[in-house]
Amino acid sequence: MSETRTETDSMGAIEVPAEHYWGAQTQRSLLHFDIGGQRDRMPIEVYRAYGQVKKAAARANQEAGRLPAELAEAIITAADEIITGKLDAEFPLYIWQTGSGTQSNMNVNEVISNRANELLGAPRGGKHPVHPNDHVNLGQSSNDSFPTAMHIATLELIRGHTLPEIDALSATILDKAQQWVDVVKIGRTHLQDATPLTVGQEWSGWAWQLHQATRRADSATEPLHELALGGTAVGTGLNAPAGFAGRVAELLAEQTGFPLVSARSKFAAQGGLDAMVAASAGLRGIAVALMKIANDMRWLASGPRAGLHELVLPANEPGSSIMPGKVNPTQQEAMVMVCLQVLGEDQIVAGAGAAGNFELNAMRPIILANVLHSARILGDAAHKLREFSVKGTQLDHDRIAADVDRSLMLITALSPEIGYDKASAVAHRADREGSTLREAALAEGVDAELYDRVMVPADMVGDPRADLSAVEAEIR
Q: Which candidate in 190, 302, 374, 389 is catalytic?
């Protein structure tokens, strides 16, 4: 710290870096809660959302005549600078702080106060004419403003980043399904050979899984529309004037484009964080689907000579520092790790959501950090998987055809004609003798004409184009 200025709070005076807008309470938090590294910083998304909250509160307070227009305009200008990211460097605090988020709320209050005073021609640190508590925090407390910012930040990231990226991945998978709708392959259940289907049918299943997961996740964010603001300390609304909560919610809806409303029960909105827990569960559902798909792709691309090798994945980088020519399914591996991270973070969120006491859940920062991190990495990983793997994935048509030709489970189609027991005997004989199914069937007395008429793999897959059309109509 080169030059400093003296800032004060109820605890007394403390030196603050002169080049920054934050004040005494932010500096004390940096002193007492410097825990972890860069990843442990409070996510910047919450501060930008907080800018929306402070802007709406200033507008509502000005409309009600509780805040002079000159001060309100300066607060709104400073809040806009936060919203647009201009003041990102002013928010250095860590996740590991008071569980109510008070230190981050005061960080915002102090930055807006000092910046507003600067805009009005006053020096930083004087708290005049704009005071961080009396003006920026007017009608609010950390207990209702922080969960409000949590909801807005979560909505913006999930609906603005995560869901669009998953939808784009689903659409690309569907494109591949359309391309390969008639390519017959062997199905697998229990990691064992099963009856055939087409590659397009298999991929359409993946697309539908993702589509359903995103729809459930989108629905899971709807409880975030209810805002705690106006409940102040414990939900009774003390120090918030009549109509304040509803008006701020209206203004926030106008500013963000989300259908935000004042929470029907401020006691529930502040004592619990169930809406955040639900949003996390929605992200968990996406992770479950993505992990299944990524692992399927890894298995299907295994080889190239000693594995399944139905899929030929793009070679993005060398796969080994010792084995020349090796290429690994790195995008899928990264996705699996991201999904495991999200599953773990959801467990943290659930545990923290259950750890609230009385009129306040004091686990807010850890819930917020994990939900936002999950939303960010799921969207990022989906983008990379789509761009660098799914788009460029090709088929090993020869391997797929060879596996269909030698599959024993094709006998299933003959079972209604010759009976289950005889069909089973044919399959076991072919396996035992290493012969083809046709050779084993004729040896078991099956009529050759019957066998050739029934045992056509392309006739065993149903109507793949109709299957794809049904999925496509919903996803597109």
A: 190
